[in-house]
Amino acid sequence: MPHNHHDGCSHESHDHDHDHDHGTSDLGPNDNLFPHIDRANVVALNATTEGSVAIKPWDQRNNEEVFLESDADDQLILRIPFTGSVRLRSLLLKTGPGDQTPTKVALFSNQPSMDFNDVSDKAPVQEFDIPQDRNVAEYAVKTAKFNNVSSLTLFFPASQGADTTRIYYVGLLGHWTERKSDPVITVYETQANLADHEKIQGTDGNFSTTQS
Fold first, then answer.
1. What is the pLDDT of residues 87-139, one digit of tens each?
2. Torsion angle defined by CA atoms of residues 143, 147, 151 and 153, in that order, rounded to the nearest 10 degrees
């Protein structure tokens, strides 16, 4: 279960390292990865806007004027590349309102070109159920499974009853290290052809994983 993320940081999972500072500042938690996200290359599939609109600085986390929303149906993929290597600790989400809240989120690491054809064939590294809540919620990941991450893909398989899914804020916490050499970044289809997008059957909460 997630917990609401206020100015403090109380962890429900103890799978992560304790070498980070739990304090916060105007920039947010000290291990906020916002400065290390390659926002120019964030890609959203089946979205009405660019995916980067949901990647906000800490002081904009509760802003509901700008949001990411699905387009042809309620499925949404968000691909987030980093500027270095990341050891992920937590995912922060603000979603909704109401039935536009996703049912869950599935996390995939180092799958920079994943699309709707891939998600039905790959098991997520971890997934979380998302309750209806207008606050920012923190989802503590199993850190050992998110070590040396160069990109993170989030798949939202369905809304909780609405025609579209809405995401106000995506934040990430963890440890960043610089790469020894810069990889070649290829930007794949930034604007999905909605005529080619068919809703994936059997993914409304049924992933082949035992992790939670």
1. 999 999 999 999 999 999 999 999 999 999 999 899 999 999 999 999 999 99
2. -40
